[in-house]
Please model this.
Amino acid sequence: MKRLETVPAADGFRMPGEFEAHVGCWMLWPERPDNWRLGAKPAQAAFVEVARAISRFEPVTMGVSAAQYDNAVNLLPDDVRVVELSNNDSWVRDCGPTFVKNDATGEVRGIDWTFNAWGGLYDGLYFPWDRDDEVARKICEIERRPSYRTDGFVLEGGSIHSDGEGTLYTTEECLLSPGRNPELTREEIEGKLRDHLGIEKVVWLKGGIYLDETTGHVDNICCVARPGVVLLAWTDDEDDPQYAISKENHDLLLASTDARGRKVEVVKLPLPKPIHISAEESKGVDAVDGTLPRLEGDRLAASYVNFYIANGGLVVPAFGDANDAVAVEVLGRAFPGREVVTVPAREILLGGGNIHCITQQQPA
Amino acid sequence: MKRLETVPAADGFRMPGEFEAHVGCWMLWPERPDNWRLGAKPAQAAFVEVARAISRFEPVTMGVSAAQYDNAVNLLPDDVRVVELSNNDSWVRDCGPTFVKNDATGEVRGIDWTFNAWGGLYDGLYFPWDRDDEVARKICEIERRPSYRTDGFVLEGGSIHSDGEGTLYTTEECLLSPGRNPELTREEIEGKLRDHLGIEKVVWLKGGIYLDETTGHVDNICCVARPGVVLLAWTDDEDDPQYAISKENHDLLLASTDARGRKVEVVKLPLPKPIHISAEESKGVDAVDGTLPRLEGDRLAASYVNFYIANGGLVVPAFGDANDAVAVEVLGRAFPGREVVTVPAREILLGGGNIHCITQQQPA
Model:
């Protein structure tokens, strides 16, 4: 399919909010044993449950390497479409396309950002990442969508949230990191975001969740419930290093207006208690030079903000924490009319992300 | 997507004629160096021209291994969709799904025949063929079509032609070969064809093109122009071993009636002069134990019958033979209203088949 050399905004395209209607959801099957314990079998079981939950609301497509195809197709429910899609790991939010829409024509196209495994040779999480960097294009091919290739501009889908009405939320920790686009100024980065996403204003948060290995992706700490209203991962424990990060973002957000001039409203979404990698969990991961190790006792970047908004539903990570129920209640209020479904997500968290990181919506 | 345990005919499905309307055409990218000379580069160029020709009439999807994806996407025209699809070789007519249609609902499903590389351990052309045997299912997944898996029943799409009105044309040489379903009688095989293809009558030709390595596929010697009218590969040279084969089929066909009771009309389509593998062509192929060798002087199974019927067009192999023009003329008369396009096909022929063998229509 066609590779476009223009930019989406100039062609009349904008990035919809995740809460707008989808034709479906993309996922990638986990398999690398140097990131997922026990040959990725527990993670695969968790991904199956996420796919099953989302497919109650909208069609799901699972991209799978040729080697794992038979296994995936046997484990997944019948109504999940399974396609070959080679990859370096399973974070389709970050390596997949960001879909943009032209409201006048209804056309949807994909943005194929340059992907460098969350930091490239500076502080990327593995090497190589060549397969991941082709995922966006391959998804656009399957869907017969033209794609925009952002020559050299590095971005992951998990580092941005759009309100669909001109506002983009992101973090300085990620987008200004030396591992992304160190040759560009903050203003030049804003220009790229405007040109590609059809937005008018960037609301810059400071940092992401404490120890988040994505260099502070916004999608683990803050997301948009609807234009003008955001959810923010929150702890009341002032001794937790997370407190200062969340507090700083909280105050920044309250002092912000969005592209339409609304004062931003912040809904606090409590965090689970800190979660650490167990000895047994650590032992199950292949130790390989050049891949981020998974060591016993390491704190994981657990957050309920990392959920997926489906048509008519939310699919939310559960950690077996007392706040699981609180999160469901807060989210139910923030998204009236959507059914909240939880999926046990510890095995996804162990790989370095959560439900939002392993999904990518395709707008209707 | 769903795997069905019923059979298509019982569910109200029939195999349309190739001349009925398509939503598009599937192909697979050639790459194995033990079948295609010079690392398959000349064959790839020929496949590109076939894809380009067909895409003038209907959408084309090219399935490509992960290893060849970048190369294929760079060589193919923009309007060809390129998807990852691992395979053992590029004969999607034979390993791909046979699509069947329910005229009452408009629904299209795929039949996923068991594939054994044209003869399995008896006289198959290569080993293994596991990737090929999954191609049909993977195509159905991409297209979100339920598929019927014919547990153990071996068939290639190139060994059958449907008139869409209850008649199936095939050859005894292929379907009764010990390399296919030796445990089944001719009557049991007819039963499988009826159950799966919704046909009422099988017209059995004897043999295929002389030395055809597919064990005499019908799609290289005879095809349906429209219900009641078939094209038959023909030579007037009585010294050519092909003469007796074509003559026997000719007389059989003339003595046949189809499922609707019509006397079958036969249009002779002349063959090109015999074509042989050159020393240079033979040298370019990796010699590998267990794969059919490509030896200097071997006669190739060239035939104009091995063309593709697209929406509003025909894509026909050209051999640089005096009969190229005759074939175009005969085909133009047999398919009024369709544009006849030729593509130089020697490089496809060198791999053991032709344009019909490397294409698979998906009905509208």
Residues 3-363 of chain B form a domain with the L-arginine/glycine Amidinotransferase; Chain A fold (CATH 3.75.10.10). Chain B has one domain: 3-363.
